[in-house]
């Protein structure tokens, strides 16, 4: 079972780029990494997903190095509305079509004016 | 499209009681997953249902059970409640089953906050 580790909290000023790293040991070649954003009193919201190199969408980028021991969520030019908790999720394929989902403990991002 | 809805939003129970939580997925979504979120353990996967069948289950005791109906709505039941069951219970829906590889985006509901006294 993959184990994931994230920083507990981070602070950033508005307009800066923020990088949040999730460390995940012994993940398999095809295991996927997904990042979610969660605001208070709401369920998590999907941000981005990938399993190798770099993925970019309209709100974020995801970098996964060749050794796949970590992944980094990059949020360009954050605003106050990006203040939230960010979770990484590792989805691992098990035997006979099963899978395991392992969430990180979350990183609380505070954006400062 | 309406989002994932969960009822009730808040619930207070006492130890030993049982509780049933309900989740209505996004229209057309056939996969419903349940998660427990606590300050200490974070987000933990409970189980997933697809086409009325449980496909996978997390590491939780048998007191936690669920089911899915033909209209894809799902219920989760916790019997013999313990203080440690106090948590936010989230459900998420997806058009296709979850997998360890690429998966369709899961859409989460707002959760049911359960307090066990």
Entry keywords:
heterodimer, A: mainly beta, six-stranded mixed sheet, five-stranded antiparallel sheet, B: mainly beta, seven-stranded mixed sheet, four-stranded antiparallel sheet, 0% helix
Number of helices of chain A: 0
Total strands of chain B: the figure is 11
Q: Structural class from helices and strands of chain B?
A: mainly beta
- SSE class of chain A: mainly beta
Low-confidence stretches of chain B: none
Helicity level of chain B? under 10%
Largest interchain contact: A-B, 28 and 22 residues
Radius of gyration of chain B: 13 Å
Mean of the pLDDT scores of chain B? 93
Order of helices and strands of chain B: EEEEEEEEEEE
End-to-end gap of chain B: 37 Å
Classify the oligomer.
Answer: heterodimer
**Biggest sheet features of chain A:** 6 strands, mixed
Distance between the termini of chain A: 40 Å
Helix content of chain A: under 10%
Strand-residue proportion of chain B: over 45%
What is the H/E string of chain A? EEEEEEEEEEE
Overall shape of chain B: it is: globular
Can you characterise this structure?
- The complex is a heterodimer of chains A (113) and B (117).
- Chain A has 113 residues and is mainly beta.
- Chain A is built from no helices and 11 strands.
- The N and C termini of chain A lie far apart (40 Å).
- In chain B, a hairpin with a 5-residue loop joins strand 7 (64-68) and strand 8.
- Chain A binds chain B through residues 30-32, 34, 36, 41-46, 49, 51, 87, 89, 91-94, 97-101, 103-106, and chain B through 4, 42-45, 56, 58, 90, 92, 98-103, 105-111.
């Amino acid at each position: 079972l993959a184990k994931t580790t994230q920083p507990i909290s981070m602070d950033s000023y508005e307009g800066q780029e923020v990088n949040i790293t999730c460390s995940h040991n012994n993940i398999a070649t095809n295991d996927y990494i997904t990042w979610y954003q969660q605001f208070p009193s709401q369920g998590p919201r999907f941000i981005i997903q990938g399993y190798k190199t770099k993925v970019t969408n309209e709100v974020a980028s995801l970098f996964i190095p060749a050794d796949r021991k970590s992944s980094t969520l990059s949020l360009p030019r954050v605003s106050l509305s990006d203040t939230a908790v960010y979770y990484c999720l590792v989805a691992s394929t098990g035997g006979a079509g099963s899978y395991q989902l392992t969430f990180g403990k979350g990183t609380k991002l505070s954006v400062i004016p | 499209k309406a989002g994932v809805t969960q009822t009730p939003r808040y619930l207070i129970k006492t130890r030993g009681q049982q509780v049933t939580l309900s989740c209505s997925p996004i229209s057309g979504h056939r996969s419903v997953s349940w998660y427990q979120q606590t300050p200490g353990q974070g987000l933990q996967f409970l189980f997933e249902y697809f086409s009325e069948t449980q496909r996978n289950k997390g590491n939780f005791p048998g007191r936690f059970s669920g089911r899915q109906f033909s209209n894809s709505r799902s219920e989760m039941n916790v019997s013999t409640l313990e203080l440690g069951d106090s948590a936010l219970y989230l459900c998420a829906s997806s058009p296709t089953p979850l997998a360890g590889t690429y998966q369709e985006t899961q859409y989460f509901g707002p959760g049911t906050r359960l307090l066990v006294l």
